[in-house]
Every structure is written in C-alpha cells, then in structure tokens.
C-alpha cells in the first residue's frame, strides 16, 4: 500500500474551524499532511485539531501582525510550510442600494485582503526554499457574479486576479498558485443567507435552499469534502504542472 501522498508536507489552512475549512482539513489529514489549522475562533480550530492530530493557532487574516506571527510560529515549530490554503471567508446577502461601507470593508477585508496578508507572510519563506503551493478558496461567483452579493462577488473576483498574477510572478521559484471555486455548499455560512432569502421571497428556508440545488446540473449540492479533494490534488505533486488555475467544483453550474 502506497504512503499517503501528502505525508511529507506541512500544510497551513486558514478558517479551518468549520464549514469548507473543516472539510479541507479532513481530506488533508486523510492524505497524511502535517496540518496547522488556524481560525479567528481559536476554540473551533482547537476542536478540529484535536480530532485530526493537528496543531491549532489563532489567526485574524485581516491583521498583518497576526498573519506574520502565525507563520513565524509554524516555522519555529515545524521548520517549513509547504502548502498554504487560504480558506477563511464570510458572506452576506445585501441589495446594492443598501450596502454600506462597513459591510463592503468587512467582506473584502476577510475574503480578499485576508488572502493577500496570509500569502504575503508565507511567500518569502517559499521563495527562499524555491518550492511551495498556495491554494485559495474563491467561488463560482468569482467568475460570474450574481445579484444581492456584489461585495462578495468582488472579493472572490479579487482572489482569482491575485491567483493569476502571483502564479506568473512566482513560477520562477517553482511556487504554484491556484484557486478552487466552490459552488453550492451548505455550511454554517449559508444559514443566515437562507434566512434572508426566505424573508425576502416569502418562502421557507428549505425552499430557498432547494432553489439553489435545482440549478445544479448534477442535481446535488457540493460537500465540504468535495472541495477538500481538489485542494488535496492541487497540493500534491500530481498537480506539479498546474498553476494560475481557478478549478470549479460546482456540479456543472459554472463551466468556465
């Protein structure tokens, strides 16, 4: 029986305390990665880490100091970082004419600036080693926007742009930079959105959810582990010639 394909890799996952981050952590642990899990909610990161035999740190991805501190702690404890998974993210449905500056900043600070800050903290180490893989979680709406989530779409488009630019800039250092674009994944992030949509449309939360599922060609929502499987592939040496990509995991909802 062959060894798990990530057995020799130290992988840092942000926002790993719940939702897609937890699903990613589950798959990476199965593939043998030496995991470091971070979250702004340290208790949630510690719970997942305890279950998976991983290390947990508190990290606020909107803070330069927090991101650099975590990277320093990981390097001191593990000696290297082979893979960074930028997963931390938030969302909220807001009609554009009601969108205020504070909500715009909240979503973009976490979803876009957070990817920049975590990546910026890790890249010098990877450049020095001339090796690494950076995987950021974007969204299918990072390629084709939808109404009522304009600020969220903008933040996820930014992740794709950062991914493409960095992929070209860091290629000479053999650092691969990719994104994963999930479709409809029912995580804790979705619950307040379903509440808002059910109130707006006068339908139940389950009916609101089913409206999304009905639009998926494969007829089923994606699971957090589905995203984890693609992240694990991109982190592995099997994807050694993939960089600058935004890989869809949408059941056919997004085709480009």
What would you say this structure looks like, in words?
The model has no long low-confidence stretch (mean pLDDT 95). 48% of the residues lie in helices and 14% in strands. It is an alpha/beta fold and 256 residues long. Helix 3 packs parallel to helix 4. It contains eight helices and seven strands, in the order βαβαβαβαβαβαααβ. Strands 3-2-1-4-5-6-7 form a seven-stranded parallel sheet, sandwiched between helices. Helix 1 (19-30) links the parallel strand 1 (10-13) and strand 2. The chain has helices at 19-30, 42-52, 64-78, 101-129, 150-170, 190-201, 205-214, 224-235; strands spanning 10-13, 34-39, 55-58, 83-86, 132-137, 175-182, 246-249.
Beta-strand portion reads: 5-15%
Total number of helices: 8
Rg over CA atoms, rounded to whole Å, is 18 Å
What are the segments in which pLDDT stays under 50 over at least 5 consecutive residues?
A: none
Order of helices and strands: EHEHEHEHEHEHHHE
Strand order of the largest sheet: 3-2-1-4-5-6-7
* Shape annotation: globular
Structure summary, number of beta strands: 7
Main sheet: strands, sense, barrel: 7 strands, parallel
Portion of residues within helices:
40-55%
Head-to-tail CA distance between termini: 37 Å
pLDDT averaged over residues: 95
Structural class: alpha/beta
Q: What features would you highlight for this structure?
A:
alpha/beta, 256 residues
């Amino acid at each position: 029986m062959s060894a798990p394909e990530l057995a020799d890799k130290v992988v840092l996952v942000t926002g790993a305390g719940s939702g897609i981050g937890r699903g990613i952590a589950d798959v990476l642990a199965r593939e043998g990665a030496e995991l470091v899990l971070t979250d702004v909610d340290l208790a949630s990161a510690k719970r997942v880490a305890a279950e998976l035999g991983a290390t947990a740190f508190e990290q606020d991805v909107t803070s330069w100091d927090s991101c650099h501190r975590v990277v320093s702690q990981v390097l001191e404890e593990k000696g290297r970082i082979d893979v960074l998974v930028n997963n931390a993210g938030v969302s909220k449905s807001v009609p554009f004419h009601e969108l205020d500056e504070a909500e715009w900043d909240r979503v973009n600070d976490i979803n876009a600036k957070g990817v920049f800050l975590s990546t910026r903290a890790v890249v010098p180490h990877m450049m020095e080693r001339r090796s690494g893989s950076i995987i950021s979680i974007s969204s299918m709406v990072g390629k084709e926007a939808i109404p009522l989530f304009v600020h969220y779409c903008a933040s996820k488009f930014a992740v794709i742009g950062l991914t493409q630019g960095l992929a070209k800039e860091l290629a000479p250092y053999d650092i691969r930079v990719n994104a994963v674009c999930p479709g409809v994944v029912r995580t804790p992030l979705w619950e307040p959105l379903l509440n808002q949509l059910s109130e707006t449309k006068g339908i139940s939360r389950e009916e609101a959810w089913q409206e999304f599922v009905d639009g998926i060609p494969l007829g089923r929502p994606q699971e957090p582990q589905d995203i984890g499987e693609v992240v694990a592939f991109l982190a592995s040496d099997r994807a050694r010639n993939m960089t600058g990509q935004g890989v869809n995991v949408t059941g056919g909802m997004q085709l480009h």
